[in-house]
């Protein structure tokens, strides 16, 4: 899989926002018509909801696959698009989109990567996966100052009195990694059972037994402090009732949720947070911007992966006309066209 | 077969139960606000409900994956369940649940 360095400038034929199954299959349909694609996704892996929400769950309505898991579907799609060398910009959110003087689009990601192309395809599914925020009063005033949902630089937390909330791998991994450099690390979780890797849980319990880490089995209820600076977190447990856990930093790991994000500002005339498109080309009301998969809207829309595949194929036909305005589009079948087979690397010409 | 659902605003709705459907699906099909973003995969906990105490014992007991998923919910109580893991049946005729905070779409 081709990954580019973050923060660089790239030129390509088509920018695909979202590397879920539909974005991945769009690479295939575009590739058959000689269009190169770059994909942007906030997750650090391709597959979208299939790999984030249900990698191991069986899907039963993919044509010709009586049963396939979300991860297997992703892996097969990745295999299918290998001949077209798509470039992935992962762990980045599509932040802004503007039209250049030459009529092309310029997309800038949250990591400062710049991609320019004549065509944009929004295949963003349910939106960007972002951290789920705890339901606590005045949370916003502490965010980015003393409440965080990710660790970007560990050094930022040196010498801090850190409370980590959650019971999964993120919570446990960061509790273990930050413990040596923090002044104090405490962990708060709703039950004395952790779904994180057993090895991490054992290490955590050893640190707790040695008095090097505190463990609170409690619910987080409130934030205490002033001007965005935490002095403690209010908690409640059956055993202890209400109490305050002193800390100057809260790291909350409650999983991910999907939010539309900056796409809402792309000027695509949203219909209930979905992007209206026509059903001939799946183009938005802004020519050269297409939308396919769960995020688009048209009468009769069904949010099915197979619908997204169909939409990708028709989108590619019109995208071709924008990318190659002087070329004639000839429809061909992969079963019979030697030109297509050559692109797919299955040509027997060499034999 | 009836299902009584109290929404996030405190209003109770009488829904027609559908045999074999997940309670989450019945709520969504009826048009009440429920995020249920993983679509019933027992992953996201955005279909979290509080089950009326008199009905708790009548439900199929929680499996480990449902308990794990509830770690990503808030205000989890002893009567918390994921509505995608409750299958509607005649024996649950009259079931009462309340949509928990965090289930808003």
Helix count, DSSP H or I runs of 4 or more residues of chain B: 3
How many structural domains of chain A? 2
CATH superfamily of chain B: Beta-grasp domain
Name the CATH architecture of chain B. Roll
Kindly name the structural category of chain B: alpha+beta
* CATH hierarchy class name of chain B: Alpha Beta
**Strand tally of chain B:** 5
CATH class of the largest domain in chain A: Alpha Beta
Helical element count of chain A? 8
Biggest interface reads: A-B, 21 and 19 residues
Largest sheet of chain A: 6 strands, parallel
**Global morphology of chain A:** elongated
Query: Mean pLDDT of chain B, nearest integer?
Result: 96
Model description:
The complex is a heterodimer of chains A (351) and B (105). With 351 residues, chain A is an alpha/beta fold. Chain A has eight helices and 24 strands. Chain A has two domains: 2-130 and 257-343, FAD/NAD(P)-binding domain (3-Layer(bba) Sandwich), CATH 3.50.50.60; 139-254, 3-Layer(bba) Sandwich (FAD/NAD(P)-binding domain), CATH 3.50.50. In chain A, the strands form seven sheets. Chain A has a six-stranded parallel beta sheet with strand order 1-7-4-3-11-23, covered by helices on one side. In chain A, strands 13-20-14-15-16 form a five-stranded parallel beta sheet, covered by helices on one side. In chain A, strands 2-10-9-8 form a four-stranded mixed beta sheet, with no helix packed on it. Chain A is elongated. The model of chain A has no long low-confidence stretch (mean pLDDT 95). Chain B has 105 residues and is α+β, with helices and mostly antiparallel strands. Chain B has a single domain (2-99), classed as Beta-grasp domain (Ubiquitin-like (UB roll), Roll). In chain B, 17% of the residues lie in helices and 21% in strands. Chain B has helices at residues 23-30, 53-56, 64-69, and strands at residues 2-6, 12-16, 48-51, 80-82, 95-99. The mean pLDDT of chain B is 96.
């Amino acid at each position: 899989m081709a990954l580019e360095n973050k923060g660089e400038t790239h030129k390509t034929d088509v920018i695909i926002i979202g590397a879920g199954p539909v974005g991945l299959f769009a690479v295939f349909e575009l590739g058959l018509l000689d269009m190169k694609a770059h994909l942007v996704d906030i997750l650090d892996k391709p597959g979208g909801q299939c790999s984030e929400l249900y990698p191991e769950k069986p899907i039963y309505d993919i044509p010709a696959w009586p049963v396939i898991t979300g991860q297997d579907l992703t892996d097969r799609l990745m295999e299918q698009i290998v001949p077209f060398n798509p470039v992935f910009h992962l762990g980045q959110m599509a932040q802004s989109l503007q039209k250049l003087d030459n009529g092309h689009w310029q997309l800038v990601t949250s990591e400062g990567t710049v991609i320019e192309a004549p065509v944009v395809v929004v295949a963003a599914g349910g939106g960007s996966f972002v951290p789920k925020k705890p339901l606590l009063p005045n949370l916003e005033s502490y965010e980015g100052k003393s409440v965080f949902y990710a660790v970007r630089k560990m050094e930022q937390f040196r010498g801090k009195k850190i409370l980590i909330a959650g019971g999964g791998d993120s919570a446990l991994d960061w509790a273990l990694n930050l413990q040596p450099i923090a002044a104090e690390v405490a962990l708060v979780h709703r039950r004395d059972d952790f779904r994180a890797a057993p090895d991490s849980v054992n290490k955590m319990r050893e640190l707790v037994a040695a008095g090097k880490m505190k463990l609170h089995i409690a619910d987080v209820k409130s934030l205490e402090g002033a001007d965005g600076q935490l002095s403690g977190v209010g908690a409640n447990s059956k055993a202890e009732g209400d109490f305050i856990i002193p800390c100057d930093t809260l790291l909350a790991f409650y999983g991910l949720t999907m939010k539309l994000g900056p796409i809402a500002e792309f000027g695509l005339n949203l219909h209930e947070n979905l992007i209206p498109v026509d059903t001939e080309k799946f183009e938005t009301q802004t020519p050269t911007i297409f939308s396919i998969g769960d995020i688009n809207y048209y009468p009769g829309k069904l949010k099915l992966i197979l619908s997204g595949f169909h939409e990708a194929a028709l989108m590619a036909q019109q995208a071709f006309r924008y990318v190659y305005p002087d070329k004639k589009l000839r429809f061909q079948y992969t079963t019979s066209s030697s030109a297509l087979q050559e692109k797919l690397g299955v040509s027997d010409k060499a034999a | 077969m009836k299902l009584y659902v109290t929404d996030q605003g405190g209003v109770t709705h009488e829904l027609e139960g559908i045999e074999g459907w997940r309670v989450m699906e019945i709520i969504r099909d009826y048009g009440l606000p429920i995020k249920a973003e993983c679509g019933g995969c027992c992953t996201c906990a955005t279909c979290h409900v509080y089950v009326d105490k008199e009905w708790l014992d009548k439900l199929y007991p929680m499996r480990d994956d449902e308990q794990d998923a509830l770690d990503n919910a808030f205000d989890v109580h002893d009567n918390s369940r994921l509505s995608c893991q409750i299958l509607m049946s005649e024996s649950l005729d009259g079931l009462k649940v309340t949509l928990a905070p965090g289930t808003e779409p």
